[in-house]
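Progress narrative, Year 2. Work on RPGFL factor from Acrocephalus arundinaceus advanced from sequence curation to structure prediction during this period.
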Amino acid sequence: QELYLLIMKDTSLYHELEDEIIKLHQLVETVELKVADETPPPNKQVKPLFRHFRRIDSCLQTRVAFRGSDEIFCRVYMPDHSYVTIRSRLSASVQDILASVTEKLQYSEEQSSRGYALILVTMASSGEKAVLQPSEECVFTTLGINSHLFACTKDTFDSLVPLPEEIQVVPGDTEIHRAEPEDVANHLTAFHWELFRCIHELEFVDYVFHGERGRRETANLELLLQRCSEVQHWVGTELLLCEGLGKRAHLLKKLIKIAAICKQNQDMLSFYAIVIGLNNAAVSRLRLTWEKLPGKFKNLFRKFENLTDPCRNHKTYREVLAKMKPPLIPFVPLILKDLTFLHEGSKTLLDGLVNVEKL
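Result:
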């Protein structure tokens, strides 16, 4: 694992290492998941969701669409922060997940009958936790950015705490200071395109209608939405963990450059995520950092704020988007907002007849 992480840092300098990294990645994954006894047949591909493992791993995988029947590996943690790795369908219910965990732990029926039955809990790094109902499905796609699944009894629920590595504050990522803005922006666009092209149009409809029809196969769409939030948090985190005023101002300038290149690449998802991240209240309050920013970049950022301004139903953004020729990556949450207004503002049935215009 140490060798793998060190080589990952050198890929930007030595591109010929890429083939070796993929082989090493497979070795690390095999050891980490301990799947020697349960390796799937060669004709069936098991796709691990990237959020359940180090995000560094996910960048090596070409994105392919997820379906409810796909099998994935995921970790379910215990109150003492030990974990079991289970293999499960993407669409598995909470009940199915708990059954797999119970089997791995060799949890007896006698323990369940004594009132020690396991419950499944999602816990965020902030300590916020929620109990999942047994009938809920596709829970893997609804986890937050820093959320994990915990299995515990009702008695131990109150004692659950986040994983230690999520509580500790560590210095910012030094790699971002060495990377060129063009490289970062192009990698963002390439990765988001891989995610975006996996989404089927019906996922948008299912996502909006899921309150009535139950959760369907919206895994790819939810993955992209989570990624959008992740980029927003990444921008704020890197700036706030950056030590030294000069270094922080330089990073702020670089992030504005990255946003500009993403817009040029017609990756409006990355562009929006970076601008929203820079508009975060914690970042906006860095008065000395913003004052140190060159006037040219201050003006550029004001233009970006005007473009992302939600006034008049995002009129400025819609006008800019209308002039772009595909391929492009739109700001997906706005599409969902439009569909939600369309759905909730119009009845599906009128006088017992289907509202064809709405549908």
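The first strand starts at residue 71 and ends at 77. The radius of gyration is 23 Å.
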